[in-house]
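Continuing the batch. This is chain 6 of the set; chains 1 through 5 are on the previous pages. Same settings as before, nothing changed between runs. Recording input and output for traceability.
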Amino acid sequence: MNARLACLIVVLACLPGLARAQTNAAQGEYLVRAGGCMSCHTADPARPFAGGRPIATPFGNVFAPNITSDRETGIGAWTDAQFVRAMREGIGRNGEQLYPAFPYTAYTLLSDADLLAMRAWLATVPPVRAATPRNTLAFPFDQRWLMTLWNLFNFSPGRFVPDPSKSAEWNRGAYLVEGLGHCGECHTPRNWLGGLNRSERLGGATVAGWQAGNLTPERVAGIGAWRDDELLRFLSTGAAPGRAYAIGPMAEVVATSTQFLTTADLRAMIAYMRAVPPVAVKDARSRTSFGRPARTDITALDTDGARLYAAACACCHGMTGEGSKPFPPLVHDGVTGALGTATTSNLVLVILHGVNRQTRDAYAQMPAFAAQLTDEQIAALSNFITRQFGDPRATTDAKAVARLRSMTQ
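Output for chain 6:
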């Protein structure tokens, strides 16, 4: 056998394996997208997955690690077994307990095939040398061994088991919402130990000051009154006019994750969320039940809030608050209505930090005013907006604004 023929035989023998590896990596990229890995593990957009981003918790900041293929500071030298163990059990490469800011409590549901596909794709991410900063947790929460006790009360390891009494779509949605997408990590309230309060699953929660919405089919505070096409549009574009616009952490989720999911997967998630037990919110009111367009000349109103609105907001959202494309209205909006609850947190944080949400369909941008406006001015502006366009029960003051300003985002 000549050398050329021998080489050809070797190449042909390797082709099926190469094709499988490429398919596995491509599927892994989709799963990494669905898992929202980029949002937490990217501090600098120019260095995706290089870590370094602080994740705020009530106990201090946890810094997301480098998960590029760098062998020294990333996960390039990790074995598949070490990767799977970290994802499913919250155990690091050297046997250290990981903090649940990393959602291993949800990823424990993932299948072998999906985890290995994610690992295969992450191995193709260009290496970036970037050491992870030290966490800034207060004592005793900086003692990793305590996570063993935490896990006893708040972690139930195990793979996802399909429910034979449910449809294939429901089961796929459950796998995505509860496992890979780990929606409950932001949308479920937590107990005093930081574990998820399962009795109010997906009923809404507070994350770094942001109010994450109620994803249950409750009709006033949740998604019960939303149509499927509205939910689909929100998850794929971040904008559901008349319902809500993705802001804060949810804007990142849409931009880096859900906009890339297939329509079938998004519909499966919607089908599952519609079937979870509804969680009512005390004193919640439909956002369409309050707020009205301004029909008088705002500039003639002798209040600091009105003057600030006219100067900083009206150019985009209009003097009446009804907006004009591409700028959304403030009347009956999810920010001013605060998702049906009497709080201004989302509104204040949007004013402080702005909006930067880019999808395949649109680029939504609002400037941040943290450097231009004082706490007193932001409080006055927020109170004017909620009184005029939103829920008049929702008020704030300079002290509350200062607290939100100080939070790590």
